[in-house]
Design brief:
single chain, 8 helices, two-stranded antiparallel sheet, mainly alpha, WH-like_DNA-bd_sf, 2 strands
C-alpha cells in the first residue's frame, strides 16, 4: 500500500520520536540499522522528512536527527506519508491503472474507495507519539 520509502519513513520517524522523547539525537547509521534499511536510502528519506519539517537534522559532533518533543504528540502519520508519497495512497487505482474513476472504474474501484477513506481516517488520527510509546513499552516493534 505504501512505497518502500514511505514504510522506512514511518519506521524512522517512529524511532526518532522515541529517542527524542528520551532527549537523544540519533545518527543516520543508528537509524538505518534500527529500521533495517540501507544507509544511503535512509539518508534520502530523512532528507525528504527534514525538508518537509517532519524532523530536524543537526550537523556536527553532537548532531543527528530529532523531533521536537512538543511536536511528537501532534505529528500525524498522514504528514509523514504526504512528505514521502504525496497523495498517491489516497488517489491511486487498486489495480494500478493510469485512469480509474467513478466514470471509468476498474473492477475494484467501488470497494477500494472505502478502503482508501478508512486508511486516510486512520493516518490523520494516529500520532507519532502513539507509535513511539508503543515501542517504548514493548507493545510494537520496528523489525523482526
Amino acid at each position: 500500500m505504501f512505497s518502500k520509502a514511505c514504510e522506512y519513513g514511518i519506521k524512522a520517524s517512529t524511532y526518532i520520536a522515541l529517542q527524542s522523547l528520551q532527549n537523544r539525537r540519533v545518527s543516520l547509521k543508528e537509524i538505518a540499522e534500527e529500521i533495517n534499511s540501507p544507509v544511503a536510502f535512509t539518508a534520502k528519506i530523512l532528507h525528504q522528512l527534514a525538508k518537509s519539517d517532519v524532523l530536524k537534522s543537526n550537523k556536527g559532533p553532537s548532531g543527528g536527527f530529532e523531533i521536537p518533543k512538543v511536536k511528537i504528540d501532534t505529528l500525524m502519520l498522514s504528514e509523514i506519508v504526504f512528505a514521502i508519497d504525496g497523495n498517491s495512497v489516497y488517489e491511486g487505482c487498486a489495480l494500478g491503472f493510469n485512469e480509474c474513476n467513478s466514470k471509468i472504474p476498474c473492477p475494484l474501484h467501488d470497494k477500494f474507495v472505502d478502503i482508501r477513506d478508512e486508511l486516510k481516517n486512520m493516518l490523520t488520527k494516529t500520532s507519532l507519539y502513539e507509535l513511539a510509546t508503543g515501542l517504548e513499552v514493548g507493545l510494537t516493534f520496528l523489525k523482526r
